[in-house]
Here is the input.
Amino acid sequence: MPKGMPEPSTVLFRGIRVVDPATGRDGPGDVLVEDGVVASVGEAGTASAPRRGEVIEGDGLVLAPGLVDLHAHLREPGREDKETVESGSRAAALGGYTAVAAMANTDPVADNAAVIQEVMALAEKAALCEVHPVGAITRGLEGETLAEIGEMASLGVRMFSDDGKGVQSARVLRLALEYAKAFDVVIAEHCEDESLTEGAQMHEGYHSATLGLRGWPSEAEELMLARDVFLARRTGGRLHVCHLSAAGSVDLVRRAKEEGLRVSAEVTPHHLTFTDDDLSSYDTYFKVNPPMRSADDREALRAGLADGTIDAVATDHAPHADEEKEQEFDLSPPGTIGLETALAAVLTELVEPGRLSLLRAVEAMSTAPAGVLGLRDHGGPVEAGRPANLVVFDPAAEWTAGPRFASKSKNSAFTGRALRGRVLHTLLAGELTVRDGAATR
Amino acid sequence: MIKHLLSITQLAPEDVTRVLDTADSFREVGTRVIKKVPALRGRTVVNLFYENSTRTRISFELAAKRLSADVINFSTSGSSVSKGESLKDTALTLEAMGADAIVMRHSSSGACHTLTKWVKASVLNAGDGTHEHPTQALLDLYTIRERYGRLEGLRAAIVGDILHSRVARSLTLGLVKMGAEVTLVGPPTLIPPEAPQWGVDVSYELDGVIPKLDVCYMLRVQRERQRQQYFPSVREYSRIYGLSRERVAQLPEGALIMHPGPMNRGVEIASEVADLPQSVITEQVTNGIAIRMSLLYLILGGGAGEVSDVA
Here is the structure.
């Protein structure tokens, strides 16, 4: 524990619905948190109040392992005006996250040990959630020469990605997948064949044709993903596919998994929620990369998440300054923030309509991503002796997203949207980082 | 009437008819010795042109002046924009100066939509990127209706770079809205695959389409598209999709030849064809002023009143 941190809380959650995908448990129970760990998990109503600490009645609330995000842009170092490790960690904690993977496309790029250590130090200082820096696959994200993956891995980096760009050269990606095997780390690919997306602004289809915006065809994602699956087969390397957006990509991942390849995949809350139809007023908050696609694509993503083809929900939290988003559509950078709305979006769009069980939703937002990153202290099981990285939320609470967020940026595609499900408490190693929906620091 | 004109899709068929009818009564003003009516006296119209466009800017300027509005031309070269001012700040500045209408030409699709978020003034789209050019479509509809007395049931082809043409997008949607039958013609690389969803036919071959047309609308082809490999050479494009004298001979008697200008004579249209009597290219220009008077009047002025009283 860093210096100056408050003592871990002692809290009894009494009669709360415990949703724990690691054990398959979904039912009422009493959960006592003490000394940074889960002290006991018992039948509802059996635990007596602890001598010190407090009791939180669990009526209608859900307790689950803390959420884990595989994909956030925390912008530090370089664009501290948009987000910092601290502000991003706070947004994450408010969203129920206890661990976040911070993407490498900072300035300077996290392609060396020095930047990785800087991010780790900033995260430890903020201490609002664990931040696991992602290392770049190639130096400067230029797609040409491998970054020092081994040295970064020795610092604990588990995932490598040039996210923001795909690795255009098949040879370079092949070498990355092979080389990464020595350290058992994951290569996370942003699939985009840039020869098909130059100047692209939105999904290529009826709406791009009508709005006069250059299209980003699904094939640009599918082609690179297919290539990467072939290379994963060739090399035996571990491939993680970032932010799936197209129906064809879901099929490719499904086939790769059926074949037994070491492939995992994520989808964002915004691709599960919106379509290209939402861009008709040229609202730059809906400009993301990869783009919001058709209703058929969204349906395939939802089905893929439900059947486990897509392992995880990841935010692709991408903060941008007002003056960047308040521009002509083609000048605006792509991206939406997402840490503070991800759980509610999944509950509203998928769990509430019965597309996803709560157990599967928590699995996709906690247990599965913790597995991809190899984080043993996260994702459950919620059992005695385990580190108390937990989230408590009210699945029925209704609220409207934005316009202000704890993130330093406010470019949320969910702004103004009615959502259901609100995080009340987040516990990081037994300490309440969020209490009653407010960050404790 | 609508507050902003961003897209032809905002107008119902009866709105289109009203704009054309109002233009009818304004066109007479242009034939007077004193080409001016007091309809918009005291109102301020700003022409905000982020792309050079002599023809559209002058047309809007004349239209506003003939309605007695005060007109400010804000061109971006040599202005605060060339010093890096954002569209938002430029918009707020114009708003603070009391603009009642902003006529904007911009290279970014959707820029006019974006502008409406920041200003109370009415925004008229004078061409945004590869999206739309609704006033061009309305003047084209006016020109066609003037010749045929109707739009419904007419057969029109729009020929060329549909993918990148804001004129094509607005005119296609406008013609379909008014009940015309539209065929889009061009190389497959320059026609969006989803185009049939606009309610049109698509053909990759001009010769088979020509003999059935009432209107043959040729689009300007930018040489840049050849550099981007959308077609192999200007020569080949011209041979397959250019309106040659031979093709004109296959047009039905009286069919109109149209072009939004500026023309590439010898590329999409043979020079002698542009000057034929059935070519109405200069009429399109003349009608542009009346259409823009009509729009400014209906959007800014008393769209409720009888137009003929004012004119």
About this structure: The longest strand of chain A covers residues 390-400. The CA atoms of residues 125 and 338 of chain A lie 23 Å apart. The interface with chain B takes residues 201, 205-206, 208-214, 281-282, 284, 323, 326-331 of chain A (CB under 8 Å). The longest helix of chain A spans residues 218-235.
